[in-house]
């Protein structure tokens, strides 16, 4: 199957030739195989061997490409299995053919002779293990007789395949004659080194202009060489000790000495993949040593990266014991990488970064408690990049983004202000763009202005699709940065230090300009709010918590004011409101004045900047009397009449469920004010010109009335006023609805109205007598 | 009553014809043991239970399906009828569809709806718990209903990677032009979706109930408060999935919110709601079931 890529790039006539040759060979094989099987049926062993030898003779060709040769080889080995099974059967029945092993050696040509010898040898081994050791040694030595690369590779592959299950896999001195694991190792290693030599030699045969093609062919054949290593890894009795003292040195020696880039690259990769991680850990030094001695053309970084990734995956896998502490894994790798960078001045920035990225992955995955490792890597990377000065800004950005992403995935905490500073310095290309700072701020300013309604200005600014894409990129990067802010944490106890960290973060992040702080500062503010709450929760152990909370809120206040100045009124408004809510929860000295300050800032922002009238409703759970009336006032100044009506109605809730201090947390339930609000809302609704809209608003209002009537059930409040107004509204709605032309909108209003009436009915039917009585006034 | 009976009969015939197509062109396993096996291997796309399946068995299978996030359909008839519908001459209590073949049975019978919201990434949280991400895989969920406050684009992109059908309403921090309320119909269930900061007082059941009546829906989903809630009131259902990231909220300053989301399995006559909560590094799951009242007046 590994030939598939091959078939396309062969030129036409060659392919046709190949097909013809292959067809001929295959038909001969089929014929001979048929004859062989017939002879076996008739128990004529000698004739069968003759046919088998004829069949194997087809493998002597040197005209076939590796792909076709492989196909032929597969068919023949398939047929050879019949012969093997027959011989095995005969042997087990006790009908031993004398001297078969010598007999097959009389075959005329070396290829059929060796194939037959291997087949018979394996049968001998399977029948009695006595001479296993000698036969194996004999076979692998005999195979030296074929020195043509292609034929030799396949012959040895056949040897390897046949001996797959018969290699001795036991410790020495158990059985003297049948051999031990060290014989197996010798056998496979010899086979490996011979195959590798053949494979390397392959490139030197034929014309130089076909060199590319030969390289390609070699790449296709690499699997044959790798099988040796796989076989080695399957021997159970090879332990770490043996691997370190026997197997690895021999393999590495062969690899280093062959001096061929392709071979070195593949075999090193192979070693990493086939042997267990524990072995790699034990032999890291030797392996890295060998890496340093490889051909300069070998991409060492790929080898290192795959080794690092494998080891860090091993360390983080469930159930493993992690990396033993006596192996300074990180130091090994960082030294090695430093060496590589030093020795290869032409290393591309991408390679450099990918190396460092693998190292960071290792540091984060394996040494979770050693942040200094990460810092070290980052520092090296940074200095490396600075020194080289080869990174353009997009690359730099992607490196920084990768770094942040990595931190997020691993949940790496940044525990001190110094480290925050370092980190932000490292990713400074994301924090702000140097030089272009002023320009960006100006651009942001004009952009917002152009939103304000001057289309000419916007187009002059060149707000094309490019800047659109830029904006998206920026949003992505900055939100990444914002997410990282949540990792700036000193742990649960060091609250003062946490505040320091936040101050540092704000100082640096605030330099980003309007487009950036939108994403990066709100996380800081929210962290600060949370910090204030934590101070409050710890009030028993810290007497100065009041002062500290006050400081935090001053800090938040100035931060949010900064945001407001950056043309982000909406965001600032929200932050102020949330801030007021937090202040409300924490009873430090004069906390109500602070809350008032926050809210009044919010109101002033609201009046100055925001035209979208629906934002009103967020001032919900607030407590202070002047604010309440101010809210009503603001609500009635909204732009559109329906929104005015809705907002004023919503304000009714303020007078109902607000919990002022004087009542010790009870709801104030100011029915008079509620009634006023709703009446006012009704008046505003009646000023709407559109009848449908008016009906809609009235229906909503009826629902408000219902809400308050039901809420006040069981209390001694007199709601007859409310219910009678609601009754009047119902009558009005009925009147409007009857005159309304049928449309999708009016349908919807109808349904809503019906549902309301239905609900009121069900309440009056199910509820206690007082509610029923009240609802009766609604003239249902 | 007769009308309802007629409707359910018609629906059953519909399912029978789909089952026949699955039997012909798809791959199913029959019987309890094989059904459980396929669930354990995660191969089952849909599990069908006969109406007279013993309660203990039913709950076992439902539990397994919840873990493997495959849908369960409660077949209208008993085990004899289910056997007949599959073209078998024996009784079938439980079966699992491994491959629907040419039939659209999985899409029509199973409606897994993810209800999630209040991410507040990057303002208040860095990301949703990694264990949640591992739970939510593409291809199992048909609809996503999001209560808003996504803020960053990456959260929305993440939801869109789960399924193409994503509905979002606007939270108070969202810049995007999403609607304030939205009505989505899943199967026969009308679901209303809102963020909830518009309703005063926040999270008040009576206000929510009022909105449910205004939208004319069976189930109203709202967010904002960080508290997971599922309750019934005035003939309708209410669900609050809480915050997917457990984002800080000034209104709930006392305690740290628990990250949570909900999965709805919408059946013909009921909605099963699974609540996933991230508590102390582990995901805890609860199950709540609503019966959809057919008599619900929808005008």
Automatic annotation (TrEMBL), chain A:
<dbReference type="Pfam" id="PF03635">
    <property type="entry name" value="Vps35"/>
</dbReference>
<dbReference type="InterPro" id="IPR005378">
    <property type="entry name" value="Vps35"/>
</dbReference>
<comment type="similarity">
    <text>Belongs to the VPS35 family.</text>
</comment>
<dbReference type="GO" id="GO:0005770">
    <property type="term" value="C:late endosome"/>
</dbReference>
<dbReference type="GO" id="GO:0042147">
    <property type="term" value="P:retrograde transport, endosome to Golgi"/>
</dbReference>
<feature type="region of interest" description="Disordered">
    <location>
        <begin position="448"/>
        <end position="473"/>
    </location>
</feature>
<dbReference type="GO" id="GO:0005829">
    <property type="term" value="C:cytosol"/>
</dbReference>
<dbReference type="GO" id="GO:0030906">
    <property type="term" value="C:retromer, cargo-selective complex"/>
</dbReference>
<keyword id="KW-0813">Transport</keyword>
<comment type="function">
    <text>Plays a role in vesicular protein sorting.</text>
</comment>
<keyword id="KW-0472">Membrane</keyword>
<dbReference type="GO" id="GO:0006886">
    <property type="term" value="P:intracellular protein transport"/>
</dbReference>
<keyword id="KW-0653">Protein transport</keyword>
<protein>
    <recommendedName>
        <fullName>Vacuolar protein sorting-associated protein 35</fullName>
    </recommendedName>
</protein>
<dbReference type="InterPro" id="IPR042491">
    <property type="entry name" value="Vps35_C"/>
</dbReference>
From TrEMBL, chain B:
<keyword id="KW-0813">Transport</keyword>
<comment type="function">
    <text>Component of the commander complex that is essential for endosomal recycling of transmembrane cargos; the commander complex is composed of the Csubcomplex and the retriever subcomplex. Component of the retriever complex, which is a heterotrimeric complex related to retromer cargo-selective complex (CSC) and essential for retromer-independent retrieval and recycling of numerous cargos. Component of the retromer cargo-selective complex (CSC).</text>
</comment>
<dbReference type="Pfam" id="PF01248">
    <property type="entry name" value="Ribosomal_L7Ae"/>
</dbReference>
<comment type="similarity">
    <text>Belongs to the VPS29 family.</text>
</comment>
<dbReference type="InterPro" id="IPR004038">
    <property type="entry name" value="Ribosomal_eL8/eL30/eS12/Gad45"/>
</dbReference>
<dbReference type="GO" id="GO:0031410">
    <property type="term" value="C:cytoplasmic vesicle"/>
</dbReference>
<dbReference type="InterPro" id="IPR029052">
    <property type="entry name" value="Metallo-depent_PP-like"/>
</dbReference>
<keyword id="KW-0689">Ribosomal protein</keyword>
<dbReference type="InterPro" id="IPR022991">
    <property type="entry name" value="Ribosomal_eL30_CS"/>
</dbReference>
<dbReference type="GO" id="GO:0003723">
    <property type="term" value="F:RNA binding"/>
</dbReference>
<dbReference type="InterPro" id="IPR029064">
    <property type="entry name" value="Ribosomal_eL30-like_sf"/>
</dbReference>
<feature type="domain" description="Calcineurin-like phosphoesterase">
    <location>
        <begin position="111"/>
        <end position="267"/>
    </location>
</feature>
<comment type="similarity">
    <text>Belongs to the eukaryotic ribosomal protein eL30 family.</text>
</comment>
<dbReference type="GO" id="GO:0015031">
    <property type="term" value="P:protein transport"/>
</dbReference>
<dbReference type="Pfam" id="PF12850">
    <property type="entry name" value="Metallophos_2"/>
</dbReference>
<dbReference type="GO" id="GO:0003735">
    <property type="term" value="F:structural constituent of ribosome"/>
</dbReference>
<dbReference type="InterPro" id="IPR000979">
    <property type="entry name" value="Phosphodiesterase_MJ0936/Vps29"/>
</dbReference>
<feature type="domain" description="Ribosomal protein eL8/eL30/eS12/Gadd45">
    <location>
        <begin position="14"/>
        <end position="106"/>
    </location>
</feature>
<protein>
    <recommendedName>
        <fullName>Vacuolar protein sorting-associated protein 29</fullName>
    </recommendedName>
</protein>
<dbReference type="InterPro" id="IPR024654">
    <property type="entry name" value="Calcineurin-like_PHP_lpxH"/>
</dbReference>
<dbReference type="InterPro" id="IPR028661">
    <property type="entry name" value="Vps29"/>
</dbReference>
<dbReference type="InterPro" id="IPR000231">
    <property type="entry name" value="Ribosomal_eL30"/>
</dbReference>
